[in-house]
Write a structure and sequence with these properties.
It is built from 13 helices and 11 strands. By secondary structure, it is α+β, with helices and mostly antiparallel strands. It has 3 domains: 64 residues, no CATH class; 146 residues, D-amino Acid Aminotransferase, Chain A, domain 1; 63 residues, Dna Ligase, domain 1 (2-Layer Sandwich), CATH 3.30.1490. A hairpin with a 5-residue loop joins strand 10 and strand 11.
Length: 352
Amino acid sequence: MVTKKPQKPGPPPVPGFSPGALLEGWRGASHVRDLTFSGRLRTALDFAAQARSRGITAGEYFDQFRFHTLPKAGQERFITLYEAQRITWRLSREIRDVFWNKDLFLEAFSGFVRRGWVRVTEGRQEDFRALCGKNARLIVKPRASTEGRGIRILEKGETADPDALFRELLGEDCIVEEIIQSDGQMAAFNPSSLNTVRVVTLYNGEHFEVFGAVVRFGRAGSPVDNVSAGGLFAALDPVTGEIITRGMDKEGHRWPDHPDSGRAFLGFRIPRWDRVLDTVKDAVKVRPNIRIAGWDVALTREGDIELVEGNHMPDFDLLQQPRQMGVKQAFEEKVRVLFGDRFLDNDMEGKR
């Protein structure tokens, strides 16, 4: 089971009664060992009720947070995807377009971006030709997408005729970038992907705070480290940048070492962590009202710190799943103290 995420920058859909939720819950409960028939039924009913009240998905309930093993008080400690997005959608409403559209992000945060890039659109053919002339390999990304969808590498043969390639890409609404070469220590886990750090920040114009951080590693042969594309992730100590959990995937499988390279997760420290924190602290001040953001940060082979992209609705499942520790109370309290109760109001209408 996998958690489904909205692919548009708008508010999350308000949950409601779904006749299929009970069946989905029954199917999920049927995969749980040692549950009796009555236990499966209770679990299915609980899932359906929480799908309606909290918008929980089957992936969250059974795989990520294992709600079927927790008492009600334990379940309440976790914030669901819907609950988190309901709040973060409001917090990020003034800047969501900049974060959703990759070209707008790269322009807004150009001071933290060293790689060359171009949006493939009319009038940019010369820029595209120059980019191809400097790079044998490039990376193509949809202009507005998430979870690594649609990302692919252009190999040397594909960039040999840049004009033909430009015409081919013209209808895709995409950007083309130089490929970031990863720091050697990060690349050692998986050299085929750019392995990045996700840092979630809160900022009210005066007080800056790192709410949480994770590191992500791709699997052998994959060009991306996105968890939804099969990548692995682990929790970081936000003060030291040290990995404090085993690596895991979206379905909850855990590894002490990277399954492809054999590199140990626990105890590894992200290189130049102080500079990573300084970078995101400076980035939140580029635009007003960057109250919350999930920054994807790369450590480059040249020793630089570079922003890859930003997320206006960070993935709180990445912060909760590795440690199996819910952050709902802590997050809502931070929002209340830093930004006010209005961002926690359950009334979605009128807040858009």
